[in-house]
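[recover] target loaded
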């Protein structure tokens, strides 16, 4: 197990924190976990602000080496993309959040250039009907 810094991307915000890496397992101290994600481990479970997610006993979330990032993602129901060699991890959006976004029938914002190079954002056209044409050569 090696101690080093690790970058965690959560909600689009990167945080570089100390971590212990062993193979595909990344462990963080409680302080590093809170700094990177805003979640704290309490007797009632994982908490962020007034929201607490209960954690099953035996979930193997924490050991003497710290909080397991993979077990944290599983407890929160969020996908985790992990690259220990590059010292980076990305906590994805949970299924319930994705389902709410799909149910709203509102496309996420993005910005693309037109043929003249001017940038256009989808948010500029909210409330209007828009036809998006996508093309791929494969």
């Amino acid at each position: 197990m090696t101690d080093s810094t690790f970058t965690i991307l959560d909600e689009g915000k990167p945080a570089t924190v100390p971590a212990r890496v062993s193979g595909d397992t990344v462990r963080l101290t409680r302080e590093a976990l809170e700094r990177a994600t805003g979640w704290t481990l309490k007797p009632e479970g994982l908490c962020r602000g007034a929201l607490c997610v209960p954690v099953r006993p035996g979930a193997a979330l924490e050991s003497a080496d710290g909080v397991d990032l993979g077990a944290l993602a599983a407890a929160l129901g969020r996908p985790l993309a992990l690259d220990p060699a590059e010292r980076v991890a990305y906590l994805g959006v949970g299924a319930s959040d994705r389902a709410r976004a799909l149910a709203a029938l509102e496309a996420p914002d993005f910005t693309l250039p037109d043929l003249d190079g001017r940038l256009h954002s989808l948010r500029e056209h909210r409330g209007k009907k828009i036809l998006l044409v996508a093309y791929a050569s494969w």
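[recover] notes: The first helix runs from residue 30 to 37.
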